[in-house]
Amino acid sequence: MSDNPLYKRTINRHVIPSRHLPEGERAIRVYLPPGYQAWISYPVVYCQDGEDFFNFGRIATHAQRLILEEGWEPFVIVGVEVDKSKRTSEYAPDGNRNAAYMKFFAEEMISWVESNYPVRDEPEQRLLAGDSLGGAVSLSLALAYPALFNRIVSLSGAFYDTYIEQIEAEGSLDRLKLWMVVGLQETAYETDRGVYDFVALNREAVEILKARGAKLVYEEKDGEHKWGFWQQQLPEALAVFLGPTPSSFAD
């Protein structure tokens, strides 16, 4: 079966040049689904912490099974890699590399991917996904670039005060659809900015988002702030946006 192109899974690695990032480039990896054809257009998932999504979240393995065994429409996955030592400075709104990262992601990386792969360019066909700070910066991107993004998967989003301020500064957010989850054992998680109650952070973000009209699927489950928990949530999260049955969002 593995030699049959209909079952083939491909993961390509690229280095994208950047005028915005200090290093002048950023690595990404791209999952191409079984049966991939260059003349067919595909929905696309853009992941923060791309290396972790592939290695620990096993997102390509999930996608392969969902497409082959459950009959999902094939989709492409793009994982944007990050230097963990610079992660907070890129993902946090008050980080000294945040503006450069946001511009790279939205103004350079998206156009590069769309020029090199047949992914769809409508906001409804682009899904942003991230864990912790990655979930929060995905929301930041959707707020800053509404013409590009309106669908988000947030795994235990680190919605610190700076993110809450961003949401509160917005008017109507009825264009946004979010799938959010947080682990009930995440009430005292130590970060590089102190110890936080992620359940409380997510509850506050959810209430503000709802008040501005965003449509949400929000769940609190037994789980810790780690990939062992998040990996299990990915099929459910992807199903809301990419699965064969219609999405159901609370108003």
What does this structure look like?
It is a single chain. With 251 residues, the protein is an alpha/beta fold. The protein has a single domain (5-242), classed as Rossmann fold, CATH 3.40.50.1820. It contains 8 helices and 10 strands. The protein has helices spanning 50-55, 59-70, 87-91, 98-116, 133-144, 161-168, 198-211, 227-242; strands at 10-17, 25-32, 44-47, 76-80, 126-131, 151-155, 177-183, 189-191, 194-196, 215-221. Strand 8 and strand 9 form a beta hairpin.
Write the CATH fold name.
Rossmann fold
CATH architecture verdict: 3-Layer(aba) Sandwich
End-to-end C-alpha gap? 44 Å
Structural class from helices and strands? alpha/beta
What is the count of structural domains?
1
Mean residue pLDDT: 94
Number of strands: 10
Strand content of the residues, in percent?
Answer: 15-25%
Task: Give the H and E element order.
Answer: EEEHHEHHEHEHEEEHEH
- Helix percent reads 25-40%
- Strands side by side in the biggest sheet: 1-2-4-3-5-6-7-10
What is the name of the CATH class?
Alpha Beta
Ranges where pLDDT stays below 50 over 5 or more residues in a row are none
Spatial shape: globular
CATH superfamily: Alpha/Beta hydrolase fold, catalytic domain
| Biggest sheet details | 8 strands, mixed
Count of DSSP helices? Answer: 8
Cα gyration radius (Å)? 17 Å
Keywords: Hydrolase
InterPro entries: AB_hydrolase_fold (IPR029058), Esterase-like (IPR000801), Mycobacterial_A85_antigen (IPR050583)
Protein name: Alpha/beta hydrolase
Pfam families: Esterase
